[in-house]
Each structure stands twice: as structure tokens, then as C-alpha cells.
């Protein structure tokens, strides 16, 4: 019984692939891989493979933020990525993933949205962050958040000429203020683990995803999983996430 | 089709990207790119990139969909939202539904489906970057992914587009040629027996022009066939 075996190892502080409990798998980041996108990145964490493409279109600013650009994040669990994914509109998990990534970007003020206003109250750049999962072997949140930030960092806003988007000309680099890094910490049988693979995720009691800024401030948190956590657990998880975020940040 | 441009698409016998009328773009094919899938491949023709994953043959549920004497094949063709200039809203469009269907029909004749009763073979195609001829690029990727999955096949399926621009018959249309062509014809075929499994057309051509394009595509397809075989061999060399 594979799950019991995975669990038994973790109880002894060991993992199926020989990693330490707080170790990521190999992380590989590639940027500007999609020519049609205004920015793009492909992140592989172990066998997990995620592509994020950024598109920019002109939209109408929200009425309560008439001088701001618009951020929209979507995720598709395309059935190509896992035997468990099915075709159809985004389900609960895909929607949650998109919202966690969105929150990290939004709450860190990653994008300087004020610079994306074209005509106050009328026109502003809409930045679409589309997450496309190519292969699912766990840690989709961390991989997607990293790919999103890597893609945003190379995004170029196209030129506008007579209200038309000229995509082969660049107006400016997407103005960025901050770079959030999201780290998920899982808990099972009293142990905390980083970067769970898919089979490890299946035996987690709960997990928390934490988006961390350059200065160690936290800008977004999401707990998922069925079990509750104690105050001590959460303190430990936060410290671990902040520590690991520094490692990941160096890869960008 | 139908769109007009003042720009000449063929100047002194050369196309926008410097190709001859009967020349295909630079291609790249790689097999075994999705660890979770039973078979997978990524295929690039110029700036068009398709990735295909095959799951199965696996048991099909609900049971009433099963065929007692053979496997069924399901296909999904999907364009990533960032694959084109203007973002595509996620979710199946009418175009994608139709392409999924003709892709399935292009692949079906090559498979020995009767060897796997009551199962399904799922073929998923994602267009990551589009610059014309996406459906045929997807079919080439799917052909390799099916072979990689070890599904018994009579042959590989080779696909290529043909068309007409500036009064010249061409093959392997890029996006701009696709947009402004007088006609375009996606074709898939089984190279050994020269049997055609996908044939669509829009635009206007004389019967003779269609016959000539078919002939040109089948000829150039030999090169694509060889590249598919090389890509499969390469996987087993590594």
C-alpha cells in the first residue's frame, strides 16, 4: 500500500525520493517561451510542469478604482496534465489555485497598477495571468505562483497607436513594485514538509500557502486541507515559509 | 479567408519568411514530454507549438459509453489563452469542438482499437503558441503521442496544410498566410498507403488546384513522416 508507505517514511522524517523534509525538488525556470504572449515563463519543480502566459488587453477600470489597471488570474487544469483532471470549466481546485496566485500578486502590490491607467474611468490595461498546467506532480501553487512572477518580470506592454494595440512594438516594461514568493508548507503526522509531490499531497492532513515579500512581510495566506492546526503549528509554518522563500527568490 | 491585404505574400517566388512555395517551416519534434501521460509529444512548425498527451487505453466510465468490441477514442483540441495575439477566453469554442472532432476522425483509422474493448484512449492537444496550421501540428503531435503510448498503430499519421496565396499554391501556411489566403486545406494522411484521413477546405480553388495541393502535400509529407520516425527513435536511443 503505497500511501501507507509514504506516510510511514514521513513519520520517520524520510521521504520517498530521499529529500529532506524542508527541501524543494530541483527547480527550473525558463522565461519568454511563448512569442504570442506579452510575457511568459515555464517552471518545473521536479516533474511538475507549469506554463504561465501574460496577455494584455484594454479594458474598463473598476468604478471604485478608476485610475488603476486590472489584474485577472485564471488557471486551467487541462486534462493533459494528469489522469485525474477532466475537461470542463475550472473546478474548485483550479479556481482556488488561481485565486491564491492572484492574491499573492495583488496584495504584494507586485504590479504598479496605477501606471496602467490609460484614460481615467474609461480605459486601462488589463493584465491576464493564465496558468496552464502541463504535468501535475504536486506543489501546483508554488510552481504556478513562481511562474506567474517570473512571467510578469519579463512582460512588456505593447504600444498603443490611435487606440489600437500594436503588439510587435513595446510601450514599456510592465511596471513592477514587488516580487512575492509563495511557499506551501504541508503537515502530516506531526511533521512539516515543503514541496510535497502528488503522492505526498494525498496523505497531507493540511497545508498552508504563504506569500512572502522581499522584506519578509507576508501578503497572503491560505489554509487548505481537512485537519486543524494549532497556534504553534502556524508559527512554525510561517517561519519555515519565510526561510524557504529566500531560497526561491535567489532563483529569479 | 476573405480578408484582404495590400501586402504581397509572395515576392519573386519567395514567401514572407523566405520560404519557397513548397517548403515547410523549420520543425522540431520531441517525444515523452509529459511524465504523467502514457504517451506524449511536442511538435513545432515554425512558431506554432502543439503538445499532445495520450491517456489510455483505460477503462471507460460510465459503462454505457463502452463499446464491447473495441476501444473508443476521445480527442480534445484546446488553445492556451496566451497562444495568440488577442487572448482567447478559456473553454471550448465552436471552432475547438469541430477541430477536436476532425482530429479524432483523422487518427481513428490508424489505430487497432479492437484490441482494447471497453476502454477509452484520450488524446489531449494543447496549442501553446499559434502561427497558423495549428490543427495539423496538433495531429502530428497526437500521432507521436499515440505511438509513444504504445497503442498499436497501422502507421503514423502525417498532417500538413496546403493553400493558395497570391495565385501561388503553397504548403505549411503560417498565420499571416492563413489569414489572407485565397484558400487553405488542412490534410492528414497515412504515408505508407497514402490514405487521407483529414481533408477540409475553405476558400476558392479549381478542382485541378486542389489535386495539385494534395499531390504537393503528400510529397512534402514524406519529410514530416521521416521526422516523426526520427523523433520516436530518438526517445529510445536516450
Properties at a glance:
heterodimer; A: about 250 residues; alpha+beta; Ribosomal Protein S5, domain 2; 6-stranded mixed sheet; 4-stranded antiparallel sheet; 5 helices; 12 strands; elongated; B: about 240 residues; 5-stranded mixed sheet; 5-stranded antiparallel sheet; 4 helices; about 30% strand; globular
Structure commentary:
With 252 residues, chain A is an alpha+beta fold. Chain A is built from 5 helices and 12 strands. In chain A, the strands form 3 sheets. In chain A, strands 1, 2, 3, 4, 5 and 6 form a 6-stranded mixed sheet that branches. The mean pLDDT of chain A is 95. Chain B has a single domain (10-237), classed as Ribosomal Protein S5, domain 2 (2-Layer Sandwich), CATH 3.30.230.70. In chain B, 28% of the residues lie in helices and 31% in strands. Chain B has 4 helices and 12 strands. Chain A binds chain B through residues 34-37, 40, 47, 49, 51, 53-55, 57, 74, 76, 78-83, 87, 89-90, 128, 130, 132, 134-137, 167, and chain B through 34-37, 40, 47, 51-53, 55, 58, 76, 78, 80-87, 90-92, 122, 124-126, 128-131.
